[in-house]
Amino acid sequence: MPEKATADARPILSLKGIGRRFGGLDAVRGVDLEIKPGERRAILGPNGAGKTTLFNLISGEFPPTSGTVHLFGEDVSALPARKRARMGLARTFQTSRLFGGLTVEDNVYLAVLGVRDGHLRPVLNHEDSEMRERAREIATQMGLGEVLDREVAELSHGEQRQLEVAMARATDPKLMLLDEPAAGLSRTERQTLTELLLGLPEDITLVIIEHDMDVALRVATWVTMMYEGQVIAEGTPDEIRANEMVHDLYLGRRHAA
Amino acid sequence: MATSAPEPLSAGIEAPGRLRQPKQVIGGAVAALVAGWLIVKAVGNFGGFLNATLLGLTLAGLYFVVASGFTLIFGLMRTINMAHGSLYLLGGYIAFELQEKLFSDNKGGFELSIGQSSGETQYSTIEWLVPLLIAALAMGVLGVLIYQLLLRWNQGQELRQALITIAVIIIAGDQMLAHFGGVAKDIKLPASWPTSVDIPLIGSFGFFRLTIVLGSAILVGLLLWWMIKRTRFGLITRAGVDDRDMVSALGINIPLVFAAAFFIGSLLAGFGGVLGGSMLSLQPGQDSAFLLNSLVVVIIGGMGSLGGAAVGAVALGLVQAYGASYLVFGGTDLTNYSILLTFGLVVAVLAVRPYGLFGRPA
């Protein structure tokens, strides 16, 4: 398949000298990042390192103050979030962003609907039952088969996190950004989540921000380390595990600054 | 009837003394006093009580039609469309003008300043319906224009959007005053409709209020309920009430959904204006009066909740009707102060349920 070969050669996501300034604060400074199709990348770094801002720049929540974002080979620096979502980018948020008053199925259904047309179509048709079917299927894959008809506000924290991944998955993305999916989860919930992430199809490229090393380093094949808005180290999970600077940053033996 | 006079007064005196008690106790005590007072009144003159109740319910029907559009826009956009009352009044005026210009027998006569004294014309049903449809649709389109031209580029800046729509109220209010004058205007009802119907115990009651206004409110309520529960747009709207940004992150075309919400909400304001212009009358100041009514209704019911708007409208309509009928103590007529009861109602609801009866924190 020659098409695949060329696709493999080109990065799915490429950031060039990207930066974002909030007032006097440089949240992200001149970051270059390339993600290849099918890659599993973890982004680590202490609080305030600019990881979530980087995600927001990739997904288009706000535009960069410098640099460019190329998604699937196209310059998307000026495109709004929903257009990037339609190109095949899905993301989750650090704090739960779910529709608490709707059922699990409705939440996933909206995610399926979002990347299709006809959002204002007044009459339901066969397409809707097909989308509902798809929503149930994905929710079940993500371990939510038992709670499809429950209101999201009633779910446990772990189930809500699973639902977020399910919603990101439901859009059939080429690239998925997960922002601290394991935050606040118990040990068993973290294990369930790790299994779910490892079970995602190979053709979905995954970028994950995670503080929990057990989750991050098990899921990722390549790790980027950020500190104060810049990339300070990259490597395999084993290299990062052995990196002294990483230990310093995470265990608090940080330079006085 | 004078025997029951002290009761509402004692409610006012007692409540502040109990401020240290749990809110529910105060709320319950006030509710019990009001209920007791109404029972005394109802026993005294049951037919009159039923009449006041029915007046309140028909008023509630009008409030619901207007406020349901308001709450739809607010629930989705978190934007208070302050110009909602202006759309109500302008919708009514447009229907009035269309009826005069298109269907009046003495065409060409320019009796704007004389108002209703001109109209000996017998209008048919169609001559009432056509202005209604055109006015409602025109307000829907105007609502979309307000959204597209004034609000869309201020997305997420609620305060700025509120100020812009307040500016619209002021500008539109003066323009309407200049064009339609300060004299109250009525949209004429079809001559073939009866003016009143006889109801047992109550006697004669306005036909239009009872059938058309109440019927429209129920129809609007059912249609909106169906739309919210059974369509894609409705599901997106319900999701948007929880988290608008997330809806957008899913790829949903939120500007389009907002424009649709504005169209429907503004159309309902215009529709309400035509109903109100036929049932009451149209005059300057009703733009802010109906903005206020809509605000009260959705604050009582909970912002963004359709069921809340229905309950809030009934509460407001009944309070106003009872206030207008029963605030007469012996020779003292306090009905001018009945608006205070409205705000008493808001205070009582907010004390017990800060987000309104069916509201949730945003």
Describe the secondary structure blueprint for this structure:
The complex is a heterodimer of chains A (257) and B (362).
Chain A (H helix, E strand, L loop, with lengths): L1 H8 L3 E10 L2 E11 L4 E5 L6 H9 L6 E6 L2 E2 L5 H7 L1 E3 L12 H11 L11 H16 L15 H14 L4 E5 L7 H12 L6 E5 L3 H7 L2 E6 L2 E6 L1 H6 L1 H8 L6
Parallel strand pairs in A: 3-8, 3-9, 6-7, 7-8
Antiparallel strand pairs in A: 1-2, 1-4, 4-5, 9-10
Chain B lengths: L5 H12 L5 H22 L1 H32 L6 H20 L21 H27 L6 H23 L15 E4 L3 E4 H24 L1 H11 L1 H6 L4 H26 L6 H16 L4 H21 L1 E2 L2 E2 L4 H15 L10
Antiparallel strand pairs in B: 1-2, 3-4
Structure notes:
- The complex is a heterodimer of chains A (257) and B (362).
- With 257 residues, chain A is α/β, with parallel strands linked by helices.
- Chain A has two domains: 1-88 and 175-194 and 205-257, Rossmann fold, CATH 3.40.50.300; 89-172, P-loop containing nucleotide triphosphate hydrolases (Rossmann fold), CATH 3.40.50.
- Chain A has ten helices and ten strands.
- Chain A has helices at 2-9, 51-59, 81-87, 104-114, 126-141, 157-170, 187-198, 213-219, 237-242, 244-251, and strands at 13-22, 25-35, 40-44, 66-71, 74-75, 89-91, 175-179, 205-209, 222-227, 230-235.
- In chain A, a hairpin with a 2-residue loop joins β4 (66-71) and β5.
- In chain A, α4 runs parallel beside α6 (157-170), α5 crosses α6 and α6 runs parallel beside α7.
- The longest helix of chain A has 16 residues, at 126-141.
- Residues 1-7 of chain A have low confidence and may be disordered.
- By secondary structure, chain B is mainly alpha-helical.
- Chain B has a single domain (45-352), classed as ABC transporter involved in vitamin B12 uptake, BtuC (Orthogonal Bundle), CATH 1.10.3470.
- Chain B contains 13 helices and four strands.
- Chain B has helices spanning 6-17, 23-44, 46-77, 84-103, 125-151, 158-180, 207-230, 232-242, 244-249, 254-279, 286-301, 306-326, 338-352; strands at residues 196-199, 203-206, 328-329, 332-333.
- In chain B, the strands form two sheets. Chain B has a two-stranded antiparallel ribbon with strand order 1-2. In chain B, strands 3-4 form a two-stranded antiparallel ribbon.
- In chain B, β3 (328-329) and β4 (332-333) form a beta hairpin.
- At the A-B interface, α3 and α4 of A face α8, α9 and α10 of B.
